C-alpha cells in the first residue's frame, strides 16, 4: 500500500499559506523597503523590515540542507519511488520549498535595506528566486504524482528537484561571495593565488623605500599613491566601491576616501596613529572591527605601505590635475648626435649616445669581449644557432679590421636562418601558435606562413604593421584573436582582444585593465578601450563595466585622435584600412619607439624602457630611444638595419652583466652598464644539441615547414 503524505484538503491549505507567505511580504517589501540597489545614505527604512531582512542568513541555510538532502535521497531510491523513505522525502521537499520562498523574500528585503549592489547581488537574487520557484514546482509535481497517480511525471519531478538542489547551492555560493568576498573559498587553498597564508616574501608588491627622513619627490609621491590605490582595489573594493558600500565608505575616489564613512573620517593626513583606517587594518583578525572584514588579511608590507602613505600626508593628486602618470610623447623626435670623443674611436651613433650617458653617470668603457664570445653572441642573436668549430676558426683567422661588422652582415643575409630564428620572437609577440585553443573549432587562425615570408623578405615594418591591422587572409589571425566557445567575459570578446593586442604589441600600451573598468594605474578609461575596440566591430558595441551592460553605446576612435579619425559608419574593412594608415604614419613616433625598444630588449636583455609593453615608463636614455626610432624610419623601416646598427656597436660588444635580483633590472633608477647576461632559449638549446650531438626531436614533431614539404 502506497504511503502518501498529501491529502487534497492538506494540499489546498498548504498552497494558500504558500501564496499568502509569498505575495504578502513582497507587497510589504515593495511598499515600505528602500530600493534594491542601496546607496550610501539610503538605509533609513522601517526597523521591522530591517529586522526581517537580517533573518535572511538564518533562514537561507534551512532550505539548502533540506532540498539537497531530498535530492540525495531521490538518487538513493532511484529504482523504488515508493520506498519506505518516501514520506520523509515528501516532507523534506515541502518544507524545503516553503523555506526557499521565505528565504527569497527575506533576502529581497535585506537587499533593499543594506549596503549591497552590483552584478553579484543580481545573480544571487535571481538564483534564489529561481530556486524558490523550482522548489514550489517540485512540491506541486509530487502532488500530481502521488494524489493523481501520474507516474509518468516521476522523471520530470526528479530532474526539477536536482536542478533545485543545484540552484540553491549556487545561490548559497553567490551569497557567501557577496558577504565574505569572492576569495572566501580560494583563500584557504594553498595552490590558489588568493591563499591567505602566503609568506610575506612571496608577495608580489614592490614597496617604496621607507625612509624615515626627508621629503618624497614628485615621482615617489605618485608611485606611493598608485600602490596604495592598488591595495584598495584588490583588497577593499569588494565592500567599499560602487558595487557595495559597507558602512557608507567608498575607497575608489579621492573625495570619498577622505570624506570617510558612517563613523567619520578614516584618514588623518600625517598622523597614522590617529587614523581609523590604520587602526582597523592593524587589529587582530579575530576582532569584529578588523579590516578587511572578509577574505585574506593585508600583508605586513601592505599595512606598512598604507601607514607610511598617511604619515607622508596621504598625498593624492587633485581631480583637476592633468595626470599623475607619465605619458610618453607621441610625436617622433630626432635629437642631434653628441660629438664623438677626441681620444676614442667611437663612430657608431649608439656608442655616441651611450658615451654621453656614461659621462653623465661617471662610468668608463670596459674592454670589449673576445672574438669567440662575440661570434657566439651574434650567431645566437641573429640566426639562433651556435657557430661551428670551423666557423670559429675562420673568424679567428680573419684579419680584416671590420671583420665583426662583415660577419654580422653575412649572418643577416642568411635570410632563411634569420627568418626561422626571429619567427619565435614574433610568435611570442603576436600570440601566434601552431596548435591549441581555438584551432579545433576554427575559432583561431595561424599566421605562421605570412610571418615567415615577411621576415624572409625583410618586409618594411610599416608595411608589416599595415598588413596586420588591415589583414589579408594569410595575416588575419592577429586581430581575429580567439573565438572562445560558450559565454565569455565582455572584455574577452574578439573585438576587445584585437584592441588589447594591437595596443600592447604595437604601441606598448596595456589596455586590459581599462577593458573592464576605468584604469587605476593609468589615465585610460573604459570608454577609450571600447571606442578602440569598436574599430574592429561590425556593429556598435555596448559598453560593459565589469561584465555588466551599462546601456551606453561605444564611440569609434583610435587611442590618439591626433593621428586621424575613423568613420564609425563605415564597414569593418574600411575602418581597418583607416586604422592601418593612421597608426603606421610617420607622425606616430610611439609605434616606432615600441619596435626599436623590443629589438633592443631582445638583443641586450633589457629594453631602454621596461617592461616592453609599458612604453609610458621612463627610459634609461630618452635621447637614444628617440634617435633610434627616427633613424629606423629614415632607413625605410628596415629591421635588419636596426639589428646591424646595434650589433656592430661597441655597446653591444661590452661584457655581459649578471643581475641576481630582477627588481634591480626593472627599478626606475636602473643604470645601464652593458647587456644583461641571458640563458639560451629553448629553441637555441635544442638546435645546439641537435647540431653537435644528435637531433632532439624527430621530423614528425615539426609544426611548421616553410618549404611546404609534408611532415615525415
- What sequence of helices (H) and strands (E) makes up the elements? HHHHHHHEEHHHHHHHHHHHHHEEHHHHHH
Count of DSSP E strands?
4
**Percent range of helical residues:** 40-55%
Shape: globular
Low-confidence stretches: 1-6, 17-44, 198-212
- Derived structural class: mainly alpha
Q: What is the strand content? A: under 5%
Sheet with most strands: strand arrangement: 1-2
| Radius of gyration using CA atoms only | 33 Å
Largest sheet: 2 strands, antiparallel
Average per-residue pLDDT, rounded, comes to 81
What does this structure look like?
- Among the domains are: 8-180; 200-311, no CATH class; 419-583, no CATH class.
- The chain is 49% helix and 2% strand.
- It contains 26 helices and 4 strands.
- Strands 1-2 form a two-stranded antiparallel sheet. Strands 3-4 form a two-stranded antiparallel sheet.
- Helix 15 crosses helix 16 and helix 22 (589-604) crosses helix 24 (639-647).
- The chain is globular.
- The N and C termini lie far apart (72 Å).
- The model is unreliable at 1-6, 17-44 and 198-212 (pLDDT under 50).
Topology:
Blueprint: H1 8-32, H2 47-53, H3 56-76, H4 86-113, H5 119-147, H6 154-180, H7 218-235, E1 240-241, E2 244-245, H8 254-259, H9 276-282, H10 300-311, H11 349-360, H12 371-382, H13 389-397, H14 403-412, H15 415-430, H16 448-456, H17 461-469, H18 477-480, H19 494-507, H20 526-533, E3 542-545, E4 548-553, H21 572-583, H22 589-604, H23 622-634, H24 639-647, H25 662-665, H26 682-692
Antiparallel strand pairs: 1-2, 3-4
Helix pairs in contact: 1-4, 2-4, 3-4, 3-6, 4-5, 5-6, 7-10, 12-14, 15-16, 17-21, 19-20, 22-23, 22-24
Amino acid at each position: 500500500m502506497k504511503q502518501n503524505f498529501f491529502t487534497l484538503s492538506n494540499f489546498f491549505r498548504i498552497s494558500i499559506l504558500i501564496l499568502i507567505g509569498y505575495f504578502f511580504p513582497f507587497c510589504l517589501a515593495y511598499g515600505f523597503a528602500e530600493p534594491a540597489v542601496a546607496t550610501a545614505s539610503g538605509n533609513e527604512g522601517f526597523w521591522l523590515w530591517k529586522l526581517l531582512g537580517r533573518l535572511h542568513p538564518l533562514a537561507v541555510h534551512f532550505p539548502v540542507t533540506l532540498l539537497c538532502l531530498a535530492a540525495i535521497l531521490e538518487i538513493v531510491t532511484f529504482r523504488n519511488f515508493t520506498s519506505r523513505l518516501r514520506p520523509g522525502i515528501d516532507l523534506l521537499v515541502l518544507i524545503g520549498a516553503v523555506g526557499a520562498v521565505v528565504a527569497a523574500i527575506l533576502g529581497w528585503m535585506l537587499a533593499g535595506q543594506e549596503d549591497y549592489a552590483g552584478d553579484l547581488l543580481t545573480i544571487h537574487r535571481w538564483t534564489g528566486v529561481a530556486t524558490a520557484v523550482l522548489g514550489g514546482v517540485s512540491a506541486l509535481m509530487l502532488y500530481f504524482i502521488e494524489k493523481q497517480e501520474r507516474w509518468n511525471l516521476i522523471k520530470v519531478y526528479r530532474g526539477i528537484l536536482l536542478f533545485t538542489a543545484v540552484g540553491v547551492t549556487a545561490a548559497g555560493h553567490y551569497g557567501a561571495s557577496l558577504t565574505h568576498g569572492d576569495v572566501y573559498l580560494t583563500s584557504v587553498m594553498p595552490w590558489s593565488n588568493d591563499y591567505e597564508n602566503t609568506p610575506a616574501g612571496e608577495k608580489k608588491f614592490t614597496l617604496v623605500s621607507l625612509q624615515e627622513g626627508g621629503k618624497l619627490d614628485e615621482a615617489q609621491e605618485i608611485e606611493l599613491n598608485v600602490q596604495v590605490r592598488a591595495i584598495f582595489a584588490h583588497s577593499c573594493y569588494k565592500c567599499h566601491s560602487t558595487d557595495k558600500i559597507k558602512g557608507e565608505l567608498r575607497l575608489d575616489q579621492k573625495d570619498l576616501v577622505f570624506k570617510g564613512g558612517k563613523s567619520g573620517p578614516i584618514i588623518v593626513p600625517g598622523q597614522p596613529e590617529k587614523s581609523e583606517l590604520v587602526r582597523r587594518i592593524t587589529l587582530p583578525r579575530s576582532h569584529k572591527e578588523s579590516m578587511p572584514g572578509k577574505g585574506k588579511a593585508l600583508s605586513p608590507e601592505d599595512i606598512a605601505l598604507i601607514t607610511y602613505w598617511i604619515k607622508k600626508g596621504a598625498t593624492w593628486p587633485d581631480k583637476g590635475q592633468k595626470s599623475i602618470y607619465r605619458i610618453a610623447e607621441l610625436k617622433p623626435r630626432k635629437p642631434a648626435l653628441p660629438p664623438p670623443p677626441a681620444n676614442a674611436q667611437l663612430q657608431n651613433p649608439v656608442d655616441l649616445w651611450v658615451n654621453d650617458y656614461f659621462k653623465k653617470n661617471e662610468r668608463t668603457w670596459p674592454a670589449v669581449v673576445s672574438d669567440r664570445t662575440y661570434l657566439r653572441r651574434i650567431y645566437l642573436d641573429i640566426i639562433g644557432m651556435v657557430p661551428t668549430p670551423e666557423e670559429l676558426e675562420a673568424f679567428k683567422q680573419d684579419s680584416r679590421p671590420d671583420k665583426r661588422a662583415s660577419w654580422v652582415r653575412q649572418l643577416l643575409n642568411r635570410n632563411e636562418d634569420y627568418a626561422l630564428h626571429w619567427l619565435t620572437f614574433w610568435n611570442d609577440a603576436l600570440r601566434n601558435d601552431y596548435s591549441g585553443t581555438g584551432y579545433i573549432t576554427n575559432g583561431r587562425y595561424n599566421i605562421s606562413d605570412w610571418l615567415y615570408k615577411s621576415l624572409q623578405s625583410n618586409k618594411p615594418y610599416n608595411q608589416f604593421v599595415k598588413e596586420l591591422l588591415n589583414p589579408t587572409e594569410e595575416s588575419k589571425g592577429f586581430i581575429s584573436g580567439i573565438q572562445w566557445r560558450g559565454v565569455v567575459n565582455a572584455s574577452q570578446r574578439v573585438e576587445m582582444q584585437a584592441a588589447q593586442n594591437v595596443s600592447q604589441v604595437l604601441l606598448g600600451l596595456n589596455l586590459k585593465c581599462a577593458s573592464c573598468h576605468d584604469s587605476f594605474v593609468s589615465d585610460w578609461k573604459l570608454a577609450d578601450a571600447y571606442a578602440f575596440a569598436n574599430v574592429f566591430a561590425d556593429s556598435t558595441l555596448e559598453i560593459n563595466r565589469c561584465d555588466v551592460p551599462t546601456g551606453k553605446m561605444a564611440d569609434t576612435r583610435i587611442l590618439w585622435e591626433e593621428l586621424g579619425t575613423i568613420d564609425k559608419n563605415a564597414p569593418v574593412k574600411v575602418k581597418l584600412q583607416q586604422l592601418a594608415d593612421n597608426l603606421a604614419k610617420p607622425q606616430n613616433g610611439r609605434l616606432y619607439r615600441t619596435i626599436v625598444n623590443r629589438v633592443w630588449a631582445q638583443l641586450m636583455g633589457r629594453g631602454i624602457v621596461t617592461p616592453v609593453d609599458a612604453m609610458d615608463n621612463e627610459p634609461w636614455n630618452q635621447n637614444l630611444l628617440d634617435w633610434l626610432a627616427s633613424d629606423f624610419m629614415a632607413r625605410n623601416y628596415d629591421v635588419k638595419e636596426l639589428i646591424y646598427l646595434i650589433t656592430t656597436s661597441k655597446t653591444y660588444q661590452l661584457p655581459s652583466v649578471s643581475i641576481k635580483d630582477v627588481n634591480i633590472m626593472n627599478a626606475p633608477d636602473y643604470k645601464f652598464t652593458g647587456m644583461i647576461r641571458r640563458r639560451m632559449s629553448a629553441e637555441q638549446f635544442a638546435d645546439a644539441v641537435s647540431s653537435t650531438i644528435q637531433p632532439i626531436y624527430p621530423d614528425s614533431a615539426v609544426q611548421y615547414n616553410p618549404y611546404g614539404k609534408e611532415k615525415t
